[in-house]
Amino acid sequence: MTKGTQMFARYTTVRGDPNKIDAAIEYVDGQARAAIEGTKGNLGFAVVADADGGRLVGASYWDSAESMRAAEASLADTRAAAADALSGEVSLERFEVALGFRHSFPARGATVRLARLELDPARAEEAISLMREENMPRVKGTDGLCSWQLLLNRESGSGMVVTAWESQEAAEAFWPTAQQLRARAADRVGVRFAAPDDMTMVRSTVRLD
């Protein structure tokens, strides 16, 4: 992301019947994508899946918090249809894209690693500075890395580090370094990380610039 630009993200997770995942992916990557990307303020949409677990995540990106909120009501029917397609339940998470960059667009089948985190909201700026000054330089240029993002909800202190990799092997090769960076963030600014959650890329059009 260019310094000074703002971006916000809404992650919509549907959990349901693994036997219906293919139909749900077809709907979300087709009709739902068209509706979302045609909405004012949208900056792209990513679809990732955990087929065995019956989970599907649609991540929409927006040029402002206002655009994200306005779209939430207008796209309610789209979310309901996705839940019906998977016979599942929907949950929403809203974040600021605090940091991010892209080397390449991940292909279908790429590994997407979601590393959830919690921190004291009062220390959000410290955490962002640490990630910008120490983590990003260590991550940039890593073999097999497609993109990296720090998502943060400043009010709750919840967030995610989202990375996309050309392969599972590339993600695993970087994991020892990731563990070092996680430990440093925990020690320096009290960031608490959950175990990473690996999903599979369906498609991304998100513009991280």
Number of helices: 5
Which class best fits the helix and strand makeup? alpha+beta
Give the strand line-up of the largest sheet: 1-3-2-9-5-7-6-4
Global morphology: globular
Distance between the termini: 4 Å
Alpha carbon gyration radius: 16 Å
- Fold-level CATH name: Alpha-Beta Plaits
- Compressed to H and E, one letter per element, the order equals EHEEHHEEHEEHEE
- How much of the sequence lies in strands comes to 25-35%
CATH architecture: 2-Layer Sandwich
How many strands in all?
9
Q: How many domains is the backbone divided into?
A: 1
What is the top-level CATH class?
Alpha Beta
Low-confidence stretches: none
Mean pLDDT: 95
What does this entry look like structurally?
The protein has one domain: Alpha-Beta Plaits (2-Layer Sandwich), CATH 3.30.70.100. Helix 1 packs antiparallel against helix 3 and helix 4 packs antiparallel against helix 5. It is α+β, with helices and mostly antiparallel strands. The chain has five helices and nine strands. 36% of the residues lie in helices and 35% in strands. The chain has an eight-stranded antiparallel beta barrel, surrounded by five helices. The longest helix is centred in the C-terminal third of the chain and has 22 residues. Strand 2 and strand 3 form a beta hairpin.
